[in-house]
Amino acid sequence: MKPLRLPPKIKVLEALGALADGRVRLGDGRAEVVSSEGDRVYEVCVDLERGLADSTDNGTKFRGYVGYPIIAVLMALGALPFDREVAEALRGVPWRKLNEKYKKYSKVMEVVLEEAEKKGVSRERVLSLVDEVMKKLKELGLKKGCHL
Fold first, then answer.
1. At what angle do helices 68-76 and 123-140 cross, to 10 degrees?
2. CB-based contacts of 74: which residues, under 8 Å, 6+ apart?
């Protein structure tokens, strides 16, 4: 089984936004995550005992990294750090629209961090959480595996 790479840091923010928006639905051994525009539903499976995860999102499927739907599900399951206030500051972010407008994750991240600050959550707090999540993802060392 192929190891999943660590995602771009912005994917942690997308996962937090998905949770704040109520777009994560946990099932029995499976989960669904609805896209920010509501037009796509990603299937997710996670098997932490075996260190396996998979998702139908593009990042996981085509680029081989832990996509935001997997991160969101792991947060919902308590396997990754989560901060409700940070998540709430990311509620309603139009991720696809921003990605299409700016074409660079670094620019989108800057815009999103500025919005979080306007909602009273410091950039340092957001980035600290991102670093914690990335560290934990590295420790988990997930492989692409459980079948969708």
1. 90
2. 46, 53, 80, 140
d(CA 23, CA 15): 10
Q: Tokens in use for 4?
A: 């999943």
Output the average pLDDT for the chain: 95
What phi-psi label fits residue 108: left (phi over 0), alpha (psi between -120 and 50 degrees) or beta?
alpha
Cα(23)–Cα(128) distance, integer angstroms: 24
Q: Tell me: the pLDDT tens digits for 10-53?
A: 999 999 999 999 999 998 778 999 999 999 999 999 999 999 99
pTM: predicted TM-score of the whole model, two decimal places: 0.96
- The values of phi and psi at residue 52, to 5°, are -115, 150
Length of the chain, in residues: 148
Distances (CA, A) of 85 to 81, 104, 129, 131: 13, 26, 11, 16
Cβ count within 10 A of residue 124: 10
Instruction: Answer whether residue 1 shows pLDDT above 90.
Output: no
Choose among 48, 50, 56: nearest CA to 77. 48
